[in-house]
């Protein structure tokens, strides 16, 4: 009876140490995103643009004479910050979500630091850059200059907005 040659654990380990295999780094570059809902649409900002997520119950005070897109101002640890609604700029109806469920993203771009009212924070996460797809030509014209990428997030279509471009567009729409 013929026996098959056996390899001992020591032989396998010795072979691995002497072999010159190339090690390939499979880690992909990641991008941090703040994913949120406005009305019935899902959007995201790059994590580097958002400094803080603030509870939706924070008092926001109306300021007479401000543009309709300025919800008001809030006192955040002694700093007064404006709070914007992007619904008009993004051509979305006003939200009917009640305050406790809503949140404010404190972000900065285009030389402005401001709060941005959102209906719901979905996630703050890192995604592989390969999951970000270029914007489609079929995007509505008002969104094309604001969108940097598209993403499928847990089965939801998410539009990645560039906060610098969003705030520049907001400034241009002021009277």
Automatic annotation (TrEMBL):
InterPro entries: CheW, CheW-like_dom_sf, CheW-lke_dom. Pfam families: CheW (PF01584). PROSITE patterns: CHEW (PS50851). It comes from the Bacteria. One of its GO terms (biological process) is chemotaxis. SMART domains: CheW (SM00260). Signal peptide: none annotated. Gene3D superfamilies: CheA-289, Domain 4 (2.40.50.180), SH3 Domains (2.30.30.40). Residues 30-172 form the CheW-like domain. GO terms for cellular component: cytosol. This is Purine-binding chemotaxis protein CheW. It comes from Thiopseudomonas denitrificans. The lineage of its organism: Bacteria, Pseudomonadati, Pseudomonadota, Gammaproteobacteria, Pseudomonadales.
């Amino acid at each position: 009876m013929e026996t098959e040659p056996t390899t001992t654990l020591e032989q396998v380990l010795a072979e691995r140490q002497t072999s010159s295999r190339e090690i390939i780094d499979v880690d992909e570059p990641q991008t941090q995103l703040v994913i949120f809902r406005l009305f019935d649409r899902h959007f995201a900002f790059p994590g580097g643009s958002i400094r803080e997520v603030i509870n939706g119950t924070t008092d926001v005070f109306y300021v007479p004479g401000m543009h309709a897109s300025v919800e008001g101002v809030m006192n955040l640890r002694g700093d007064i910050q404006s709070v914007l609604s992007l619904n008009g700029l993004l051509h979305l109806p006003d939200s009917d979500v009640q305050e406790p469920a809503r949140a404010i993203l404190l972000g900065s771009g285009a030389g402005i630091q401001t709060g941005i009212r959102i209906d719901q924070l979905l996630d703050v996460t890192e995604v592989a850059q390969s999951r970000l797809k270029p914007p489609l030509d079929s995007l509505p014209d008002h969104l094309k200059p604001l969108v940097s990428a598209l993403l499928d997030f847990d089965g939801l279509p998410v539009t990645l907005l560039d906060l610098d471009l969003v705030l520049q567009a907001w400034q241009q729409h002021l009277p």
